[in-house]
User: Which sequence fits this backbone?
């Protein structure tokens, strides 16, 4: 069956099950994944098991993080840490800037705490502020929504951004940093629109009681955690993950594998070896990936110093390429032993030290060649292709130093900056705050953790099911079908990347309007886009695809969105009032965050 038809059937299955039959999102995604798998190529006995395998792989990437984040959020609420953050914002900014304090509180707290919980926490404070000022009630609740909704859809470890990062292969630290950069201007714009709506609309404050809510917020008790300790469960994992990302980025920016003229030990012999590769029978065809001006230099009889520099620059540019690489895998299998005349039957003890080093590099090349070169990060491709030069010309190209001091520091940071480990430390701190402030019994603490994990469990199931759905779309060959469509275009990388930004945004809008859940829209659309972009040069980091999808998932909130009802009922508004306030405010968040995504993808591509 045509892959695009399978895609349409898969999406129609999800929407039909959720909208018409009111099936739970987990069941809808798993059923759709199985439908796509059955319609895709493969052995009959593998059609269903591969769905379960993909589900497990997806869960492995997000389950620990979501579970720990749920515990952190619950413990921050019980210990009073969340309340301390809100009160500190209000004290610092003052009552005149209460809307900024509420927006900032929602912005920070929605990183580890689910949006509905944050809204439950802050709405009573908005009512209390109105009683003291007798104005701006609509502004206060919209400010809470603006800050909470934007980080809920753009900044991990909340489930939507987390699954997008995992599905699209984005570093968690990069997702946090870029998500925050996109979210902050959008939140400010949302607050500005909230000010305008508060002035334009005459929506009364309704003082009727709602079961399960409190009208007034008590003062922070003297035994509450300090502001630093209250913020620590939020800022510590972000700091650790961001430090890891920063060190890794700096190490990659060193471009340790790049050639310099002095890396070539004998230019005359190297030049002759490259000229020999112009023979079509030569293996590997390194020269074939060089530009015409570099080939013209190689064909010269003698190379000047300027020619050598130009050739080195051309080789460095070629080492960054994903397609074509410096060689074809099938042509390189036996080149090393043939070129070095190493007997395949020789034992390790019979090899010279030089031969052992060369074979070690060959083994690394063969290990890396099993990966999809198009999905390698830039620094991995550069290292891979430099190793190819070293094993192809062992006496002519010096081995490069990969383990620089900065690289070693980055490797150490991968332990402490791993999202699972960082959030585990944060979880321990959050639980310790509960013990310090409330002194619960071990049984009560265990029940608190279980309650938190129950709320996180359904999110894990839904996100992992979405990952399985996306994996089955890849099996169906969606990516190749999309690639063929783009191959027929102008081949412009910038326009291709922008097309995918638009595609991710508008499909997310359609899914959000159709089925109401931002998280489900993010899961489904990121899976679809991930299956399409393999081997395609976007011209920017895929993190911008994630923020575009997150932006789209904010547009068009109405009666089928649980957030709409939380805002309506807890804010004591009518459905009509929410459609005139909540819906356009979220639309503002959506448009501004998408505009920021496009802008940053141009000025800060993060390649």
Assistant:
């Amino acid at each position: 069956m045509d892959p695009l038809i399978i895609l349409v059937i898969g999406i129609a299955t999800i929407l039909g099950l959720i909208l018409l039959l009111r099936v739970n999102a987990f069941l809808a995604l798993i059923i759709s994944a199985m439908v796509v798998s059955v319609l895709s190529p493969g052995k009959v006995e593998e059609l269903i098991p591969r769905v379960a395998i993909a589900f497990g792989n997806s869960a492995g990437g997000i389950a620990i993080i979501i579970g720990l984040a749920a515990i952190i959020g619950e413990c921050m609420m019980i210990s009073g840490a969340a309340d301390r953050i809100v009160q500190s914002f209000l004290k610092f900014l003052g009552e005149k800037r209460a809307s900024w304090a509420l927006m900032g509180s929602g912005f920070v707290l929605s990183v580890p705490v689910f949006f509905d919980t944050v809204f439950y926490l802050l709405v009573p404070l908005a009512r209390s502020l109105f009683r003291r000022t007798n104005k701006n009630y609509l502004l206060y609740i919209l400010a809470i929504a603006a800050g909470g909704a934007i980080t809920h859809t753009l900044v991990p470890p909340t489930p939507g951004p987390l699954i997008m990062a995992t599905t699209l292969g984005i570093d968690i630290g990069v997702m946090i940093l870029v998500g925050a950069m996109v979210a902050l201007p959008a939140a400010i714009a949302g607050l500005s629109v909230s000010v305008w709506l508060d002035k334009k609309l005459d929506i009364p404050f309704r003082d009727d009681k709602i079961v399960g809510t409190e009208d007034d917020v008590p003062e922070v008790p003297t035994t509450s955690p300090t502001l630093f300790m209250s913020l620590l469960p939020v800022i510590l994992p972000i700091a650790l993950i961001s430090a890891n990302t920063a060190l890794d980025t700096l190490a990659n920016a060193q471009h340790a594998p790049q050639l310099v003229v002095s890396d070539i030990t004998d230019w005359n012999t190297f030049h002759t070896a490259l000229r020999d590769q112009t023979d079509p029978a030569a293996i590997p065809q390194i020269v074939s990936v060089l530009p015409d001006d570099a080939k013209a230099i190689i064909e010269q009889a003698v190379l000047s110093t300027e020619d050598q520099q130009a050739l080195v620059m051309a080789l460095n540019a070629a080492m960054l390429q994903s397609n074509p690489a410096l060689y074809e895998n099938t042509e390189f299998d036996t080149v090393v032993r043939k070129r070095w005349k190493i007997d395949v039957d020789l034992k390790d003890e019979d090899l010279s030290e030089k031969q052992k080093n060369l074979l070690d590099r060959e083994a690394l090349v063969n290990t890396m060649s099993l990966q999809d070169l198009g999905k390698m990060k830039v620094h991995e491709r550069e290292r891979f292709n430099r190793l190819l030069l070293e094993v192809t010309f062992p006496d002519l190209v010096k081995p490069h130093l990969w383990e620089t001091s900065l690289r070693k520091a980055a490797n150490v940071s991968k332990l402490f900056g791993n999202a699972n480990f960082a959030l585990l430390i944060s979880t321990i701190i959050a639980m310790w705050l509960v013990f310090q402030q409330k002194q619960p019994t071990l049984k009560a603490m265990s029940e608190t953790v279980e309650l938190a994990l129950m709320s996180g469990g359904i999110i894990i199931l839904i996100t992992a099911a979405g990952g399985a759905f996306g994996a089955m779309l890849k099996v169906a060959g969606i990516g190749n079908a999309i690639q063929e469509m783009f191959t027929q275009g102008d081949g412009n990388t910038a326009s291709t990347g922008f097309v995918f930004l638009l595609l991710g945004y508008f499909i997310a809008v359609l899914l959000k309007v159709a089925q109401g859940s931002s998280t489900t829209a993010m899961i489904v659309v990121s899976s679809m886009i991930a299956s399409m972009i393999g081997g395609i040069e976007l011209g920017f980091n895929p993190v911008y695809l994630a923020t575009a999808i997150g932006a789209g998932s904010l547009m068009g909130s109405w009666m089928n969105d649980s957030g709409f009802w939380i805002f309506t009922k807890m804010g004591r508004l009518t459905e009509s009032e929410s459609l005139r306030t909540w819906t356009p405010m979220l639309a503002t968040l959506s448009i501004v965050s998408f505009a920021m995504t496009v802008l940053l993808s141009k000025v800060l591509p993060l390649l």
